[in-house]
Amino acid sequence: MSKPIVLHIDHVSKTFGGLDALSNVHLDIREGETHAIIGPNGAGKSTLLNVCVGGLEPTKGKVLLAGTELTGRRPFEINQLGVARVFQTPEIFADLTVVENVMMAMLSHRDGAFRLRLLSRFGDRSETGLRATKALTDLGLGGHLNHLAGALSRGDKRRLELVMSVVQQPKLLLLDEPTAGMARADTNATIDILRKFKESGMTIVIIEHDMHVVFSLADRITVLAGGRVIAQGLPDEIKGNPKVVEAYLGEEQV
Amino acid sequence: MKHASKLADFALLIGFAVMVALGPVIFEPIGAGYPDLLQKFAIYGIFAIGFNILFGLTGYLSFGHAAFLGVGSYAAVWSFKLVSMDLVPAILLAVLFAGILALAIGYVSLRRSGIYFSILTLAFAQMCYNMAYSVLTPITNGETGLRVLRDDPRVVDAVFGYVSPAPSLFGLQMTGWAGYYVCGAVLVAAFGLSIAVFRSPFGMTLRAIKSNQKRMGFTGYNTRPFLLTAFIISGMYAGLAGALLAAVDPLAGAERMQWTASGEVVLMTILGGAGTLLGPVVGTGMIKYFENIFSSYNDVQLAAIFSFLPDDLRDNVVSVLGMFVGEGWALTLGLLFMLVVIFLPGGIMEGVMRLLRLKHTPKVKSLGDSPQRDAIGESVIEDMPPDDHTSRTRESAKAMRETAS
């Protein structure tokens, strides 16, 4: 527990009208840990994610990334600070080729806050292109480099989004249900990829329904229900926690 | 879009330059081989190439680009009046003023996207148009139009004792074929610059903005300055076109800023193929051809063409076709535009690409072709791309070959 805190969610509450979507959520995520946030539908998982990085202002509390306040910042600023996000439905540049997608992600920390490169040109062989190609090949997309990203299968689109996130070498990787709607074989492939990321020392927050994924990857788990943290701890502690079983009763078997 | 090699781009530029140089020969057989019309082809080609940098790459549809064309024209005429009859200062001033106006309009308009952006640009352009007729008459000379006069001061010309009756480039009069070749050279330069922009990281960023703004934000890009730069560049292209327009016809009127002129460049770009390099020029050629050649036909000429038919039939044919030529040229153009948009949404260039069988739908190989996938795990065979003609054709061809053997 001596590692520095990467993401500090400080007593955050969020109210929509009269509904308490989040009440007093407090959470610390430390460097190198893989932290899963689970909970039944409507528990506030997505709201928590949007409060952290989606530009949603919390009603109370604040969110800090390595000491820098994230609340109220625009998505591009949050990414520039070192947060990469993977969406539940893949968000990629469908009209660009696969390798261009990754190049965009690679160039963003140099050019993203606006640096003009009007006349310099590059092809697949330039340095960025080479690194993008290598990153794609490492994760099994080497056969699709010059295809339009929009033509990839759903599983490959997700994989591409993962590559785009990881080449940015983020301080924090946020995954929103990375295996939703996937076949078992593809889920396992994704788990393998994420395990690689984890072994490289990346800090990961994963929101997931699939308990197989959660228990394969998570170092620590936070359980949300009704906008509150009802349990937090190591996977073994969560498994046996009666409150968690109760929250999930009729939803899923833990 | 795939990365064309440097060599291919260079070949494209050379080919384009050759086409421009041979313009008079190429357009002679279709009755368009005279300098006044070819000058218009070249000038509006520049306008459309610039418009395409904004609309083709970012997808932001400006409905007010004629404002920049008009400002460029006025700036050029003022340069002819006050500075020199030479084209160079006129172009520099026109591009500068168009750029400043684009900065102002773009800064406000780009706060919105989609239809709201289009409406904002339209509103600004109409505002410029109305101001040119009202409060700005001291600058624009209102309805009469701004013209170059013999006794204008022209300070630089006065210093050098240079006298030229009409706008010129280093003594070369901007009329007739000389005027066409000057405009053509500028067109080739403008085209070359647009290739460079398309292939640059900046161009890729613009295409990414068109593709997915949400992903842009979460990938760390602040899209606004990129969009504003594209807007200013395309405004400057319009200013350049405006300056050339003033040079070949030194009478600037506000009608160049009217919304119909803004609409025309949208039509040119979409007709030719938005987002393609050559499309805007092709579209410009089509529209200017219809506007100038089709509109010049009349019933007498039609009757002459169909003189081989029996009289009654000929009269009927002429009265039907007569609706599509002369005053009715816009009807023909409208039908053509409808056909292109319905059957070739990518414009004429898409048709050309299909003909050349080079249509760049992604070639998705069958999944077994990528050995890397096996390192990760089994692949899902789902969501095969719906419009993958190429691979389907190739697969069915393969199947047929197998059946035959």
From TrEMBL, chain A:
<dbReference type="GO" id="GO:0016887">
    <property type="term" value="F:ATP hydrolysis activity"/>
</dbReference>
<dbReference type="GO" id="GO:0005886">
    <property type="term" value="C:plasma membrane"/>
</dbReference>
<keyword id="KW-0547">Nucleotide-binding</keyword>
<dbReference type="Pfam" id="PF00005">
    <property type="entry name" value="ABC_tran"/>
</dbReference>
<dbReference type="InterPro" id="IPR032823">
    <property type="entry name" value="BCA_ABC_TP_C"/>
</dbReference>
<dbReference type="InterPro" id="IPR051120">
    <property type="entry name" value="ABC_AA/LPS_Transport"/>
</dbReference>
<protein>
    <submittedName>
        <fullName>ABC transporter ATP-binding protein</fullName>
    </submittedName>
</protein>
<dbReference type="InterPro" id="IPR003439">
    <property type="entry name" value="ABC_transporter-like_ATP-bd"/>
</dbReference>
<dbReference type="Pfam" id="PF12399">
    <property type="entry name" value="BCA_ABC_TP_C"/>
</dbReference>
<dbReference type="InterPro" id="IPR003593">
    <property type="entry name" value="AAA+_ATPase"/>
</dbReference>
<dbReference type="GO" id="GO:0005524">
    <property type="term" value="F:ATP binding"/>
</dbReference>
<keyword id="KW-0067">ATP-binding</keyword>
<feature type="domain" description="ABC transporter">
    <location>
        <begin position="7"/>
        <end position="251"/>
    </location>
</feature>
<keyword id="KW-0813">Transport</keyword>
<dbReference type="InterPro" id="IPR027417">
    <property type="entry name" value="P-loop_NTPase"/>
</dbReference>
TrEMBL record, chain B:
<dbReference type="Pfam" id="PF02653">
    <property type="entry name" value="BPD_transp_2"/>
</dbReference>
<protein>
    <submittedName>
        <fullName>Branched-chain amino acid ABC transporter permease</fullName>
    </submittedName>
</protein>
<keyword id="KW-0812">Transmembrane</keyword>
<feature type="transmembrane region" description="Helical">
    <location>
        <begin position="265"/>
        <end position="282"/>
    </location>
</feature>
<feature type="region of interest" description="Disordered">
    <location>
        <begin position="367"/>
        <end position="405"/>
    </location>
</feature>
<keyword id="KW-1133">Transmembrane helix</keyword>
<feature type="compositionally biased region" description="Basic and acidic residues">
    <location>
        <begin position="386"/>
        <end position="405"/>
    </location>
</feature>
<dbReference type="InterPro" id="IPR043428">
    <property type="entry name" value="LivM-like"/>
</dbReference>
<feature type="transmembrane region" description="Helical">
    <location>
        <begin position="115"/>
        <end position="136"/>
    </location>
</feature>
<feature type="transmembrane region" description="Helical">
    <location>
        <begin position="223"/>
        <end position="245"/>
    </location>
</feature>
<keyword id="KW-0472">Membrane</keyword>
<feature type="transmembrane region" description="Helical">
    <location>
        <begin position="87"/>
        <end position="108"/>
    </location>
</feature>
<keyword id="KW-1003">Cell membrane</keyword>
<dbReference type="InterPro" id="IPR001851">
    <property type="entry name" value="ABC_transp_permease"/>
</dbReference>
<dbReference type="GO" id="GO:0005886">
    <property type="term" value="C:plasma membrane"/>
</dbReference>
<dbReference type="GO" id="GO:0015658">
    <property type="term" value="F:branched-chain amino acid transmembrane transporter activity"/>
</dbReference>
<feature type="transmembrane region" description="Helical">
    <location>
        <begin position="329"/>
        <end position="349"/>
    </location>
</feature>
<feature type="transmembrane region" description="Helical">
    <location>
        <begin position="178"/>
        <end position="202"/>
    </location>
</feature>
